[in-house]
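Re: that backbone. Tokens:
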């Protein structure tokens, strides 16, 4: 190969390599759920993506921000409630970045800042409520925490979606006290139910007494029915007040007929 041609091909090949290296270092790709915040020579250029974008080597610096919903556990916090009860509370926070430029420029580390803010807000809010409200109104407290944290993180470009209280741990002594309180409440309800039953039974008995007073024969029939039921027990002796001969004969006849029917029932059936 002539020397002149080789001297031309080698610089051209070197130039192609340099151009390919420049393009490879300049092309960047961000996914659909990501945005790249680009700084050129220290100045904010804007948010790029999704897809392919170009950056100037040594001049452009970018930071990729995830726009998906992110969740993290708030570490368990030992808090004293409004009624001076010590509890351990942990929660989970769901948030997402709605403005990647603010998330990069307005705060150094939006994830760390949101985590610390959630811990502080959880302690402040739980410290203002009583234990009964904490145990029974978790959903309302979660909404209140969401509003407070979302308002504070809005200048950072962060939207807090939901804050949920996961668990409330009570001391063993407080658990025993709550169990005693629940037991006393159940005992109170059972006594009220029994008293209401006695009241209703007394009212019905008073009505029955008035009906028997208006119709004495009804009382006599009730007495005979009771004696008939007692007569089924053969080993019992029943002592009744003195009655007329006619009433006594009627009662004896009923008792004998009852005994005869029981004997017939005890005999084996005839084929």
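Recovered sequence:
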């Amino acid at each position: 190969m002539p020397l002149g041609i080789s001297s031309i091909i080698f610089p051209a090949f070197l130039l192609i390599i340099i151009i390919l290296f420049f393009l490879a270092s300049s092309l960047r790709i961000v996914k659909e759920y990501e945005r790249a915040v680009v700084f050129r020579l220290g100045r904010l250029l804007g948010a790029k993506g999704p897809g392919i974008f170009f950056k100037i080597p040594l001049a452009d610096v970018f930071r990729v921000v995830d726009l998906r919903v992110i969740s993290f556990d708030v570490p368990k916090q030992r808090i004293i409630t409004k009624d001076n009860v010590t509890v351990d509370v942990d929660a989970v926070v769901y948030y997402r970045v709605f403005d990647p430029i603010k998330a990069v420029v307005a705060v150094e580390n939006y994830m760390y800042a949101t985590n610390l803010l959630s811990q502080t807000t959880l302690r402040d809010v739980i410290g203002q409520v009583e234990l009964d409200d904490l145990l029974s109104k978790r959903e309302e407290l979660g909404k209140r925490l969401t509003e407070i944290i979302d308002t504070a993180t809005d200048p950072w470009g962060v939207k807090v979606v939901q804050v949920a209280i996961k668990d409330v741990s009570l001391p063993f002594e407080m658990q025993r006290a709550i169990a005693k309180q629940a037991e006393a409440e159940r005992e109170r309800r059972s006594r009220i139910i029994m008293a209401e039953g006695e009241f209703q039974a007394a009212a019905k008995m008073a009505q029955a007494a008035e009906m028997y007073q208006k119709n004495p024969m009804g009382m006599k029939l009730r007495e005979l029915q009771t004696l008939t039921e007692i007569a089924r027990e053969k080993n019992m002796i029943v002592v009744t007040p003195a009655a007329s001969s006619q009433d006594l004969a009627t009662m004896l006849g009923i008792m004998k007929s009852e005994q005869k029917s029981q004997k017939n029932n005890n005999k084996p059936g005839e084929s």
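Helices lie at 3-26, 100-105, 110-126, 131-136, 138-153, 172-214, 216-230, 245-266. The chain has four domains: 22-66, 70-170, 172-214, 217-259.
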